[in-house]
Amino acid sequence: MLSILNNISSLEAENSLNSTQQNLSATLQALSTGQRINSGADDPAGLAIADGLEANITALTQSVQNASDGVGMLQVADGALSQISTLLNQAVTVATESASGTVSNSQRTALDNEFQSIKDEINTIGQSTTYNGQAIFGASTLTIFMSDSSSAGTTSVTVAMVTVDAGNLNGASLTADALTTAAAAQQALTDINSAIADVAALRGNLGATQNQLQAATNVMSSQITNVQAAESNIMDADIGTETANLSKYTILQQTGIAALQQSNAMQQSVLKLLQ
Length: 275
What we know:
Layout: H1 8-33, H2 44-98, H3 105-128, E1 130-131, E2 134-135, E3 140-147, E4 154-161, E5 164-165, E6 168-169, H4 182-235, H5 239-267, H6 269-273
């Protein structure tokens, strides 16, 4: 039926063309961004899940950095304690020498001066060793916070940091020790050996915590990979499918325009009936 009031075929062709244009636009956006979801309208539920996974990735990535910073701090602490162990071994040498009856009093005085210098150097190391501008050794607790952004996925690694100086080497003290007599040197040697053992124990505790943080880093790095894969499954565009859609909608756009032109041309046929 010919009608001049409503061109139904033209309206239908226009509606189909609009739909094709929308699909073509979505396909081009997916291809340009590489993402299947580019707005909440594309997949509301999928976008919500993907955003949650992105929060997990962000928190885990920072947690890996937190753990790495903690390992770095513990390595600095261990390096300082290693220097102290070296100094204590030097103290063993001078104390052993001073304890011998073949050493004169003036020589013991010189050995004691060296021993006191060793203690001063230990104090300096304990006071001046820092990480990120903060003193490492002190009566404080170091807490490394790690999380995947959820309360269930949150954990902390805590290590007690102790004050380190000649008067407190994880328990042992050299404060009262001197090498001015053979007997005093023998007592100092006993205290120095205790200090060496206590410092070694402290290094062992710090090393165990360092291993714990490194293990946690490995686990979190694996989690990041798995969560990224899950997010990718939701967000990534199927390039093969989108390329096929691009061809389909491009052809449909061309045929739609042609159909719209044809349906509009049919309206002109009414005028021929009036001639």
